[in-house]
Amino acid sequence: MLGPVTAWRGTQPVGLGTSKCRQVLGMLLLHANRRVDREQIIEGAWGSNPPRSAVNLVQKYVGDVRRALELDGDSLVTVGTGYLLRVAPDQLDSTQFASDLEHARETKNGGDLDRARQTLADAMALWRGPAFSGIDTPTADTERARLDEYRIGALEDIAELDLLRDNHALAVAELSRLASEHPYRERVRELLMIALYRSGRQADALAVYQDIQRLLADELGTNPGHGLQRVHAQILRADPALSEGAAPREPESLPVCQLPADIPDFTGRAEQLEDVLGLLTGGRNAVIVGAPGTGKSTLAVRAAHLAREMFPDGQLYLDLAGTADVPRDTAMMLAELLRALGVTDAVMPDGLHERAALYRSRLAGRQMLVLLDDAAGAHQVRPLLPPSTGCAALVTSRHLLGDLTSAHHVELDVLPSEDARALLAGIVGSDRTDREPEQAVAIVERCGRLPLAIRIAGARLASRQAWTLQVLQDRLEDESRRLCELRVGDLDLRANFDLSVRMVPADSARAFRLMGLLGAETLPGWVIGALIDQHDADDVLDALVDANLVRLMDTDSVGQPRYRLHDLLRAYAAKAAEEHYPLEERRAAVERVLGAWLALTEQARDLFYPSLFEPTRGAASRWQPVYKVVDPIAWFDVERGRLLHAIQLAVDWDLDELAWELAVAAVPYYDHRSLYQDWIRSHRIALTSRTLRGEAALLQSLGQVHIYLDEDAKALRALKRSVQLHHEAGDKRGSALALAGLATMRRVHGNYDLALGDACAALNLCVEVGHQHMEAQLRSAIGLIRLIQGNLDEAKEWIDSGLAVARQLRDRHRQAVILRNSSKYFQQADDTPAALRCLTKALTIFKDLNDERCAAYTEQRVGNVYAQLDDHPRARYALQRAADVFYVNADRRNEAECWQQLGELDVRHGELDAARTHLGRALELWQAIELADRAAAVEIALQRIN
């Protein structure tokens, strides 16, 4: 794609036939792994004057592409009135180019400058001309500009590497060419000044600065940026630092950029755009306010993209859902921002104020822009505002946020007449509006010059090329078919929405109305089928997309197209659902959607290794969508936020069984990813809608996460209550799971007799109900307790019996856990080689399963064995690796164990400074989890070496 669209099979080029076939392939690749509508392909191939046979020709050319590339039915598929081309990342030169850039940066950071430059040179060799050459559409222009930006950046990186390698003459030649081709790129000028200075050409270096200073002042009315000014000052004072290395470039990785795509057909708003940019340039927060449909978000996104260079450390974005019935929770949004800034869930603060403080701390000293879209009020925005120095916030809201004293407001009204006509022409094509200028004026006036209304009208015209503008004008003349009461102060688009809904098939209208019940989330397409109880609902959804009632947002990382209702349409749809369908029908639709979420969650869960936390199945109904989960981790990662929303939705609709079953079905994923806060939040939401069995299962699961978080008192309370409730419900499987958790807690606290009793009781129940995976685990756990009690022979029998059951089940995860316990037996039996063999096998399995936390437990055991052998280097390596993982996962108990053991080993080997460091860390952790006896032991050890 980096040039004219070309394909290869191996090293042989593939003939693509006519130029139109190549253009069709280009349009499919522009939207690779996403559905591209047939009309978009026609526009890309023929522009605004397609032949009458364009539809048939597209079908022919798609067939030609399929045959030329020898694509099977899964690689190039027909989706409604469009097509979807599935392409792996390694099949595209654009992704290879991006991969080479990333690899070059890593190599440079590692110190291998020659290899980094060669990697960049290889990346540049992929370019054969302008990207997507020969394809002239707004989408192609946007993608071409994006790729070209990376290309020029790569050339800058090559020049910087030449400077770092003292090849100043080569850098001067290349940078001079780049400065001539791209006169406004300040980074190029900055590097050129350094290259000239190091080549002994100080006067020429200063002349470069004077030239860019004059150019920026004359043509843009601005001054050179901070980087250029810094280098200029360094040259004037002959700063020695300028002779060492390349120009400082502080970020070691690409900055965060979460902005939505820029608006290619942005029209008007010049004065307001200038006001917003002026505020942001001055480091002040800006609030764009206005009535619904006035284009607040459009202006904000446009301004944010224009201001990107002013905020080189990145741009953050949040949709605050202020127009929803329940705006988004500020604490949850702070967590989302903190994740983008590198804070993991394991160390995420719980409270709103703590998160806000950490957020401000993370932004301190950075230059970042925060775009907060659709704010409900100042109370929602205030904790999300960045610190004033270096950062700025851009907020959109329907309301004046007068009590947000740190912000300046920019108000939007309807578009001026000229801009309104230009917006319509940009959507439908200026040739059509020029042919019927009076009709174009009439249409925008009927739309009240409101941007959203004009876009709706323009979209209808653009999708109906055979219509004249007079046809739409005539339709709008009739008040019953026209946008109704278009007023800035009291906006009502209901007439337009009614019209749009009446124009789609009955199934589509029903799906649209019911979709309004699901909230503001972006949703996968299978949701439509669940809403109307129809598995093949592609045509229903396509009709809604074509009518601009549902927006296709993007395609997620697992290949699901995602859709969303505009906020006004969503509110209208929910109200229309109340008017059209009784409560029972609406509730049944929501229940089917949540039943589908449950079916897919269980499908993803079952693709993991067998989970010990799977409770007895509840009474919730399942609805199986056509979509199938392939990669469970990737699917859970994508749907993580939607699952929490689904649980809340189940509670809101009093669907108690669905609420708790959804929560516990996601536990294997939360466990694998160590997402303890999601785990706890999902269960607390579900507990607000209680059933006996549901409460029992949720408390058992909460007990487990409290164990992970060293919250022993909470774990004991939850597990004891869970045992009681499971007993009342007659659920023996659930009782076994809760008793197993209690056994773990009591073993950790040294109550071995009680632990043994609970474990044996749990084992009997597991055997009775046939839960063999837990049976294997409990046999091993009993063996471990007997080992602690000093009964080695009996311990080995129990552990071996558990391993035999796990092998019979082919449960590799359980085998690895039991092998880790076997190592404790062999270590206590003075058979160190056997212990290490067990641990090596366990570690191999955990790494194959990508279970980082269990691998860390195993590394900790390896460190214990080597510490017992007094092998300091090997013990230190294993214990440090384990401690690092425990830190990330907030497992303070095991992290403390690692540091304490390592510190004690340091003492034995006379490395007292290291011992003080490691024992000091252990002491802080023991004190944090309030284990006074462990903390006291470490304090004594520290006193002895101080």
UniProtKB/TrEMBL annotation:
Keywords: DNA-binding, Transcription, Transcription regulation. Residues 1-87 bind DNA. Residues 1-87 form the OmpR/PhoB-type domain. Gene3D superfamilies: Helical domain of apoptotic protease-activating factors, P-loop containing nucleotide triphosphate hydrolases, Tetratricopeptide repeat domain, Winged helix-like DNA-binding domain superfamily/Winged helix DNA-binding domain. Belongs to the AfsR/DnrI/RedD regulatory family. This is Tetratricopeptide repeat protein. It comes from Kibdelosporangium philippinense.
